[in-house]
Amino acid sequence: MLETTNKFFDRAADHLELNDRLRTILTTPRRVVRVEIVTESDDGELLHHLGYRVQHNSTRGPMKGGLRFHPDMDEDHAASLASLMTWKTAVVDIPYGGAKGGINCDPSKLSESELNRITVRFVELIKEVIGPTIDIPAPDVNTNSQIMAWIMDEYSKYYGFSPAVVTGKPVDLFGSLGRDEATGRGVMFVLEECLAGEGRKISDVRVAIQGFGNVGSHAARLIAEQGGKIVAVSDISGGIANDQGFDLPALLAYVADNKVVEGFPGGESIAGDAVLTYDADVVIPAALEEAITVDNADQIKAKIIIEAANGPLTAQAHEMLVARGVTVVPDILANAGGVTVSYFEWTQNIQQFRWEESRVVTELERIMRRSYQDVAKLAVDDGLDLRTAAFVLAISRVLKAAASRQSVGKHLPAKLR
Ligand code: NAD
């Protein structure tokens, strides 16, 4: 996965004519932490996991990024996702660097108390390298507001009351209103901007969504509320489709009760992978990385792909789709709504002040629409695809900040001087 991210980075670096030394500096993480997490199961058995935190770049502020609890979590994933966070926070121009981490565990096989012990031990082991002005974790795949609450609680035992050490907390424990749906809402705004460029509206399109967790389900609900037809969705259990568009409230209620989309009576069952190639105008991968590869890129029928997940396209698949005229809105722009509202949560925590939900939504909308327009304009001006434009914008912002605070100034490429 890191290789894919670096390929995308390199394309933008070529455009900016960055020298090799600057490329090395910008792709090397500042700090890589791996810890061994030994705990006990409820039956008294020994449990053994590895925890990771990769801190990629802090030029533009404290490092920020999610924690993923997944059996595949490793240093490569953390490093790739950490660098995406550096570029993402720069694209939306919020005062952060990038980090990412997680634990190689499968939460579906752990009880709540086991998950709690593993999380608390992880915090004990990394507490010196995180903090409100250093590195601020947040939820990602298989982590949620409860896990963020445990992190705040454990960290605060050592350093005193510290709600700003982590975002995505429960609203009752200094979380922000509107954080839960923020990534999905950002996806909706970005889709709206993308369609507006073609003179279309959300109510004109049929949408297929892979992944029905935090991001996918909120994106589906918000797009449907704007009149969009959600015609296919999938999760780990498989896929379902309904050519007329799902009754979203009914689907959400079904998933709340059954945890998975499989068996929903308001649609027909299809293979999970078939959602990506479904007959839709827009495909939103909102599950895991490398969902669209050389093996299925040719079969994608949609003309717009909104990358709600991180890294859902391989570099080759991206090339094939862009060559076919498909618009790909890249992850570092499309799913930045989550980190943007995390930023709002952090500022509220620091000020001990709560925003109304309407203010969260208004500020999020302003940032997402402006960021889309910044990237789209650069893409047109410089003849780039949206992903390369987003990377160029992000790298330029990080380098300009580095030039102002360190000695990088005279080494800046001519284009940025
Ligand atoms: P989640 O754990 O809430 O949901 C993940 C969903 O993907 C689940 O529905 C799961 O069943 C499904 N899934 C897993 N493997 C699948 C497969 N092979 N096929 C189809 N579905 C599959 O996670 P999330 O927070 O919604 O994150 C999803 C993606 O969005 C990740 O790439 C994450 O990094 C990214 N992201 C999340 C946030 C956030 O705020 N949560 C912010 C930015 C980006």
Short description:
The protein is α/β, with parallel strands linked by helices and 417 residues long. The chain has 13 helices and twelve strands.
Polypeptide structure, described:
The chain has 417 residues and is α/β, with parallel strands linked by helices. The protein folds into two domains: 29-173, Leucine Dehydrogenase, chain A, domain 1 (Rossmann fold); 182-334, NAD(P)-binding Rossmann-like Domain (Rossmann fold, 3-Layer(aba) Sandwich), CATH 3.40.50.720. It contains 13 helices and twelve strands. The strands form two sheets. The protein has a seven-stranded mixed β-sheet with strand order 9-8-7-6-10-11-12, with helices on both faces. A five-stranded mixed β-sheet has the order 1-2-4-3-5. Helix 3 (75-91) packs across helix 13 (386-405) and helix 6 packs across helix 7 (214-225). The longest helix has 26 residues, at 357-382. The two termini are 32 Å apart. The structure holds nicotinamide-adenine-dinucleotide. Nicotinamide-adenine-dinucleotide is lined by residues 139-142, 183, 210-216, 234-236, 272, 286-288, 308-310, 335, 338. Residues 139-142, 183, 210-216, 234-236, 272, 286-288, 308-310, 335, 338 line the site of nicotinamide-adenine-dinucleotide.
